[in-house]
Amino acid sequence: MGSRFGTFHESYAQDMAVFRTRGDWGVLFAFLVFLSVCPLFFSDRVLTIMTMIGITVISVHGLNILTGYCGQISMGHAGFMAVGGYTSAILCAKLGWPYWAALPCGALAAGIAGLIFGLPSLKIKGFYLIMATIAAQFIIIWTIIQLRSTTGGTDGLSVPRPAIGSIVLSSKTNYFYLVMAFTCLATLLAKNIVRTRAGRAFIAIRDNDLAAEVMGISLWSYKLQAFFIGCVYAGVAGSLLVHYFAFASTD
Fold first, then answer.
1. Are the C-beta atoms of residues 205 and 222 closer than 8 Å to each other?
2. Based on CB atoms within 10 Å of each CB, which residue in 107, 134, 196, 235 is the most buried?
């Protein structure tokens, strides 16, 4: 089947390719050029908005995998962002870890939290799963506030900015490039995840979990994988958000 007039796929590899034509590659190249020259023309205010958009896109990719592809409704995604953000903040501010070591730890912590709160999805769905994930949001924020000596409670916690060697990413431009690099990487990774065996299993569970189970798909395994992957994305976004403001708070 052709994707455009005069363009036909002659192999399975072509059909599965992310960028299938020269036009697709041209659009990608133009987009990357646009991102690279943005700081030359845009004000700090606009760069801040675009940086926030990039961080949000990373988080929403995780929610799209969890809800859009696997059909597991989650209303507590901001709570998992808080887990990733505070884990990264504490490791950097309290223990002196470099940001590049704290970031994956924050993502992993958010993923583990997702596994814990994703366990009810094995038995409940729909409205009841919504309530369970809302509860996760409140439990996570309540826990952060109670651990005042570690997290700063309601007062928050000052966080150092990321650095590459001796270069501290303190300017709007530097952080914009950092976030956009993560956003592009997260987008490509999310696209490839949903094309794997796990991605196809997510879609089958979303469409009809009973039929998926009859076909041999392990519901408990793939549902928990979806929660883990989605919350890892949230953890990365939370870490980037906290270090952008150089301050972690439950707000």
1. yes
2. 235
